[in-house]
Amino acid sequence: MKIKFLLFLFCSLNLFAQNPTIEGDLMLCPNTNGTATITNDVNYETYQWYFKYWFLNDDYQPIENATESSFTYDWYTYDQALLKVVVTLNGETLESNAIQIDSYNWTPIYIQNELNEFVTVDPNDGTLLVCEGHTVDLNLPPLFSENIVWYNDGVPIEGANSLTYTVTAPGAYTVTASPNICPESSNSTNPLYVQFIDCSLSTPNPELEKNIEIYPNPTPDFIHINKELNADLNYIISDMNQKTLAKGTLTDQYSKVDMSQLSSGIYMITLYNGQHSKSYKIVKK
């Protein structure tokens, strides 16, 4: 009987000496609050919540007036913060696990489109050039599936409320949408300029009409460009959102372009000489 009592007492003391475990709302939408709370079924004597930003090499700081078993925090102050609670029980100080709070945990909204022989990019200003008689699809990432409104020159396009909008007229295209994880948060893109051109009237450029060989494709690091050209040739490497990542000039017949610093994905390399350009899709492994 005495042994059973001692075992009971030992287990009871272990229970009451148990470190607190906390859980909480880890992802916060803009203009919202979250709450972290102790999940142990233990009544501690005192509570003090602490925080620090994970990306700073600072110590945890006590949070003023956060002295209860739960703590409610706002999305702005505690974005990218680590939270923990320190408690006392029977003269012993105990510390909880830490949880990380994240706001704005989605990528920025942007417009995607596919380049082809009828859709190219003006290397000078990033304008999409579309051959007359053809169209170009503008796409949003699937995350931004709520409250979609496409605009042309600042005017809402009637019925344009889907992830994809097919452009049939020139203009400055923007879109507003909300991520499905935070439908109350509206985001908007920068303008994407689209111009329609008469491709049948383009003047052939003898230099760019000569053979251009780009290899290897896909590539893990460098691409080699073999051009049968006598003149220099400029190049621009861009991602599928027309963001320029690198540019330069090819002066030799055989040139090597470094892509080793780019992440794996699909890129465009645009070669141009004077008013003429030609784009190629490159896969970076």
TrEMBL record:
Keyword terms of this UniProt record: Signal
Top-rank lineage group of the source organism: Bacteria
InterPro entries per UniProt: Secre_tail (IPR026444)
Domain Secretion system C-terminal sorting: 214-283
Organism the protein comes from: Paenimyroides ceti
Pfam families (UniProt xref): Por_Secre_tail
Lineage: Bacteria, Pseudomonadati, Bacteroidota, Flavobacteriia, Flavobacteriales
Signal sequence, renumbered to the chain: 1-17
Keyword Calcium: no
Name of the protein in question: T9SS type A sorting domain-containing protein
